[in-house]
Amino acid sequence: MRATDSDGFTVIGKPWSLGRRIAAAAVAFVGIGFLVFAVAGSNPEGRLAGAGSTLANPILQRVSTSYQGYLAADRIDMTRQEGQSGDWTGGASALDYDPVGSVGGLMRLGDPAVTFAVTEVPLAPDELSAQGKVQFPLILGAAAPVANLDLAGADLVLDAKVLATIYRGEITNWSDPAIAALNPAVTLPDQPISVRHRRDGSGTTWTFTGYLAQAANWTGGQAAQVAWPVGEGAEGSRGLIEAVKATPGAIGYAEVGQARRAGLAVIRLIDGAGNVVTPSPASIRAAAGPATGQQGAPGWPMTATVYVVMRKSDPQNDRALAFFRYFYAEAGRQADALGYVPLPVEVVTEIEAHWALTFNKQS
């Protein structure tokens, strides 16, 4: 992903300007809406509910935990001033986030009990306007291809063409000459490749196929849900990671931090300029370019912008925005350790200023 107007992921200048709609993502919503919505359920009274991205789940869970502590401390201080008990159970201040995938989160936003969706698949301006919704960037993350291989500590390198050929079912063994040509110093096993992919509508799939689409032999475009020609599907990031871990010789894709914590080999990629790039906070910043103030260095080509989508009018909006204001402040302390990159302060300032212009005041 590059932070340019042409690819529809712009986060600089106008952070809320979200670019053009890509039809593949809209197609991915069709046919699964009723399934996803049917399990939405009602939200316990007083709890702030969101749903969506599995890629962003680790940072959301980490920040929500510290946010609950922040609110608890604030509540204890208030009750002591009022001469009340200092006990606080969380109740109305608790946050429920369900990592059902980017598409699932967007569909669950049809349930009034769900206040926000988190997604790497941005809605187009006409969709936002028609649905009475607001969208803004939250954080930068990264997906990566991962493998269950014993390479004696060596790193595997792939490019878009070879990766696309694997996911087309045309390269079926790790010792294939096309893989060997990209890894001349690596002893590759004579081992079948077991392809694994997401079965649900996924922002991680959206990011992954965005890289595959750089290859002329990948005709599926960029999509959140794909009719894969080969391999076995899994539900959610955890399901896909577990499927790869359980299958020697398997290949899949996942958020970088989750994959590393699971002990999977993260595959390095060749970018459009021919650079071999490793996913890291520095290469994620470089991929975002002007959005992070870092330009010139090779960027990680599976970088993702994570967005929040909310209704313009909702009685829980003030509470949700209070959480996201805290998230922006806290992300700088939590992001690097988990493999994310926070938005620059000046971008966050513009986003927060824009909230006052776009969300309807609640009486």
Description of the molecule:
This protein is of the alpha/beta class. It folds into two domains: about 5-140 and about 305-360, 3-Layer(aba) Sandwich (D-Maltodextrin-Binding Protein, domain 2); about 145-290, Periplasmic binding protein-like II (D-Maltodextrin-Binding Protein, domain 2). The chain has helices at about 25-30, 35-40, 55-80, 100-110, 125-130, 160-165, 175-180, 205-210, 235-245, 255-260, 280-290, 315-340, 345-360, and strands at about 50, 95-100, 115-120, 135-145, 155-160, 195-200, 230-235, 250-255, 265, 270, 275, 305-310. The chain starts with about 20 loop residues before the first helix and ends in a 5-residue tail after the last helix.
Spatial separation of the terminal alpha carbons: 40 Å
Domains counted in the coordinates: how many?
2
Radius of gyration: 21 Å
Say what the CATH topology of the largest domain is: D-Maltodextrin-Binding Protein, domain 2
Order of helical and strand elements? HHEHEHEHEEHHEHEHEHEEEHEHH
